[in-house]
Amino acid sequence: MLTEVDAAIVGGGAAGLWCAAVAGRRGKRVVLFEHSARLAEKIRISGGGRCNFTNRDVAAHNFVSEDPAFCEAALRRFGVADFIRLIKRHRIAFHEKHKGQLFCDESSEAIIRMLLAECRAGAVELVYPASVSSIVRGDCGYRLETTRGRIDAKKVVIATGGLSIPKIGASDFGYRIARQFGLRVIEPRAALVPLKFPQDTWRPFAELAGIAAPVRIGTGGSTQTFLEDLLFTHRGISGPAVLQISTFWTPGQDISIDFAPAIDLLAELKRQKDQTRQTLATVLAQWLPRRLAHEWLNAQGPEIAALAERKIAEVGNRALALIAAGLKDWRIVPSGSEGFQKAEVTRGGVATCELDADTLSSRDHPGLFFIGEVVDVTGWLGGYNFQWAWSSGFVAGEAL
Ligand SMILES: Cc1cc2nc3c(=O)[nH]c(=O)nc-3n(C[C@H](O)[C@H](O)[C@H](O)COP(=O)(O)OP(=O)(O)OC[C@H]3O[C@@H](n4cnc5c(N)ncnc54)[C@H](O)[C@@H]3O)c2cc1C
To answer: How would DSSP label each residue in 354-382?
Structure first.
């Protein structure tokens, strides 16, 4: 292993590998340390094995951060079109899915192979498994102690990701290094994660595990809403709608669910009163799964539950108004999330005010960079988190 380099990169995920390749191809001597036995494990498992590597439509509003505009500079310098050009150059076939999400046709391995080829072209030395135990200021930059020995680097890049999925290598190393150098770290929290409810509150709905419904979902402290599918689970709710809103949810806040987002439900129910002899539950089943309609009505107390099998024509307007209002804005308070074991990403991290948006270098410690998920920039579900890894990795790679 080299003992003196221009740049040492800690973390062999999406951001670290791409940053290493960019710097290496610019002629920099680069070494990258990864503490797991395999590189890029998150890319491998992402997008159900097909890696949703970006989105056709990426803008600052698709990211959550203390400073929502921080990511703009990097996204402008290396954006969606640049990444697509790169994967086309490597002849990786891809397709668009739901809402602009771009996936590999074959497998995420194609993205990993591409990053490794780019690293080879830049003569990057990839060292793994190897742990970095300390980073201190050295005579000409930084000195790193690693399980493979000591190394002096003019510049260091922390690309250790967030805390999600500890069993494949997530660690708090990046946050510890940030704090050691006096940088503020915003408390890391699980995001893009299923939500759960107290067992007794959830008992009536646990039966619905596996049932999905299109909803509009929101949460107390934010004006952001999402129109996506919600999935019932044994312990709570999941599916794209819930993962999206989980990033905006803070403990104690309620979640608001509209089960009939496309219609004025009360107007429809009143109209059907004059037109059909069907029961209330059957009428509701036009817009939401029948079992969900039943369980939801049952959970509203005996008076409403008793109406489920009554003909809608016999249900009073006051009850219809209550039911319509409840289904258009069902408020429930989660007891928590499924945590880092199940979260796709980590919200929070190194505060953006500590970093130069054009290079991702620490303002107070030039030569110490933070890129990717370890930074307080969290993308929505849909390829945005990888795009941040590519964009932030690129600008740091150009500044090394
Ligand atoms: C199941 C799952 C599916 C996902 N699917 C998608 C998707 O389809 N699209 C999308 O945009 N995003 C997706 N994400 C999120 C995306 O994977 C991450 O946002 C992205 O990988 C972040 O890149 P990164 O390089 O910053 O961190 P990571 O990819 O997490 O890489 C960090 C690397 O650093 C290593 N490391 C940690 N600590 C140390 C240390 N002390 N020393 C050495 N190495 C260390 C880790 O082992 C890891 O390899 C998914 C996440 C999960 C968990």
So the answer is: GB-TTT-BBSSSTTEEE-GGGBS-EEPTT
373 ligand 1 Cβ < 6 A: yes
Q: Are residues 182 and 282 in the same domain?
A: no
Ligand 1 neighbour 159 (Cβ under 6 A): yes
**Residues 18, 163: one domain?**
yes
Counting the structural domains of the chain, the total is 2
Residue 363: how many other CB atoms lie within 10 Å: 12
Q: Does 50 contact ligand 1 (Cβ within 6 A)?
A: no
Q: What one-character-per-residue DSSP string does 294-309 give?
A: HHHHHTT-HHHHTTTT
The residue with greater pLDDT, 199 or 231, is: 231
The confidence band for 182, taking pLDDT boundaries of 50, 70 and 90, is very high
Determine whether the shortest distance from the Cβ of 132 to ligand 1 is under 6 A: yes
42: Cβ below 6 Å to ligand 1? yes
List, for residues 24-67, the tens digit of each pLDDT value: 999 999 999 999 999 999 999 999 999 999 999 999 999 999 99
CA of 331 to the centre of ligand 1 (A): 33
For 322-364, strand residue ranges (E) read 330-332, 336-337, 345-350
Is the pTM higher than 0.90? The answer reads yes
Centre of ligand 1 from the C-alpha of residue 156, in Å:
18
Mean pLDDT in residue range 97-116 = 97
pLDDT single digits (tens) 352-374: 999 999 999 999 999 999 999 99
209 and 232 in contact (C-beta within 8 Å)? yes
Range of the domain at 71: 4-187+347-399
Looking at the structure, do residues 23 and 137 belong to the same domain, yes or no? yes
Q: What is the mean pLDDT of the chain?
A: 96
Ligand 1 centroid from CA 345, angstroms? 8
C-beta 34 within 6 A of ligand 1:
yes
Q: Do 152 and 199 fall into the same domain? A: no
Query: From ligand 1's centre to the CA of 14, what distance in Å?
Result: 7
CATH number at residue 308: 2.40.30.10
With the most atoms of ligand 1 within 8 angstroms of its CB, the residue from 22, 46, 64, 108 to mutate is: 46
What is the token pair recorded at 137?
């200021």
Identity of the residue numbered 138: G
At which of 338, 363, 378 does a domain end? 338
**Amino acid 54: pLDDT:** 98
Residues 30 and 107 in one domain: yes
For residue 168, report the distance from its CA to the centre of ligand 1, in Å.
Answer: 9
